[in-house]
């Protein structure tokens, strides 16, 4: 299901595209990381935010956040969560 509405899209760097393909092919990452990788792939193929969110099973806010984080901070920041404040691990 390729969305036909206008999309802001996402242009992936060639090296990032290869990393995402390897990640999704191997499937040895957490489900969260795999879903984030798939979101970035679909956006780069021209899918809309709505279509991507429905296809991957995430919210539209998540799709927009990942797109912005990739553009602003790069692939690693888009795929992996930042440490949350006040979380010092098991205590």
Q: Which descriptor suits the 3D outline? A: globular
Given helix and strand content, the structural type is mainly alpha
Main pleated sheet: none
Q: Give the amount of beta strand, in percent.
A: under 5%
Q: Note the run of SSEs as H and E.
A: HHHHH
Instruction: Tell me the distance between the termini.
Output: 46 Å
- Summarize the amount of helix as a percent range: 55-70%
Number of helices: 5
What is the total tally of β strands? 0
List keywords for this structure.
single chain, 91 residues, mainly alpha, 5 helices, 59% helix, 0% strand, disordered N terminus
Structural summary, described in words:
The chain is 59% helix and 0% strand. The protein has 91 residues and is mostly helical.
Give me the secondary-structure topology.
Elements: H1 14-26, H2 31-44, H3 49-56, H4 60-73, H5 75-79
